Amino acid sequence: MIIRPDQGPHARREPREHLTVPVGCRLLDVADSRSRKMVFGETKNLSNGGARVSLSEPFPLMSRVEVSLWIGGLKFQGRAEVVNAEAHPTHEGYRHSLRWMGLTPDEQGALSRAILDAAFVRSGATIRREMPQA
Question: Which CATH class, in words, describes the domain spanning 2-111?
């Protein structure tokens, strides 16, 4: 199910795809190597603009993170900024909203394909291949 941008105060530039896949995040720009450990969780939704993730530990608001996603056996890596972080955990962990930062065209393309693939699979559609007529 793709959530379309609306016209209200919570309008989004990019549609989001509900997608639950493993994710790992690591703080950037910190001197203490213990603070750079990978924190694991899962995505809740994903878009070309960012992601909503639940993690086992909280990250500070506006911090920069390295993000690793595993989608269908493929690994995607990018950088993001924490634009919303809930201070108290839910049964799913600490929820964070991430905004992608400086993705290369290749990274953006890989992310777009992953989102489209997830939407396609979720829709239950099948690919129909026809043999060319001789």
Answer: mainly beta
